[in-house]
Amino acid sequence: MVKAVVSGAAGRMGTRIISLIKDSGAVSVHGALESSGFFGIGSDIGEITGLGRLDVMVSSDVSGTLEGADVLIDFSKPEATLELGKTASEMGVALVIGTTGLDPDQIQEVQGFGRRVPCVFAPNMSVGVNLLLGVLSDVARVLGDEYDVEIVEAHHRMKKDAPSGTAVKMAQVLAEALKRDLGEVGIYGRQGMVGERPAREIGIHTVRGGDIVGEHTVLFAGIGERIEITHRASSRDTFAKGAVRAAAWVADQKPGLYSMKDVLGL
How many structural domains does the chain have? Predict the structure, then answer.
């Protein structure tokens, strides 16, 4: 049984991950981390989250909680991820990181964790989204430069980073398939007299509102037709299931940086 520590254990994502681990036959809840100001420090995470007693106390002691663990699952803020990842990798604890909004320097730090421990780093752990990334690459290569490419993503009002990590990953996959430099052709929203759309542009657009879990649409617009490919997440469970699956998989791997494509064998 893989022993997992969940950071942000009492949050929306953490609660779902712990609930799915509880029903998993491959992973167990070894520890639950929360920030030092959390009211429930010292309380049972199962009772706090309404899952029933799990005999796992919520703690802000990162090193103590990670002692004896096999893997840390983290969906938090970039700064917290770097601190947690540094401690975990120094202790030899594998990592599953779903945090988004990291800048290039922070991504390099995460990549460094993979030199010490096995680390799954993915902006979206949904099986469907990761399958879709491969499909998008194939479609883009066939359609080529004759079709304009646009990405529209929508999330709940509480999401802090924009565009979503998934939208950025989609744009990267499309740019690579079309042999373009995303740094040169990526356009993040439009306003004013922007002029005629360049053929090689890749547009990325953000919507925020209500409780939208996550929606991503890629539009291939040609002359006389268009193709729209959409993924809609109706529950955080799709991401949590992927995280638990990644935790069960990564614990047996050699040090390195892995994606969900590796986990899923795509």
Answer: 2
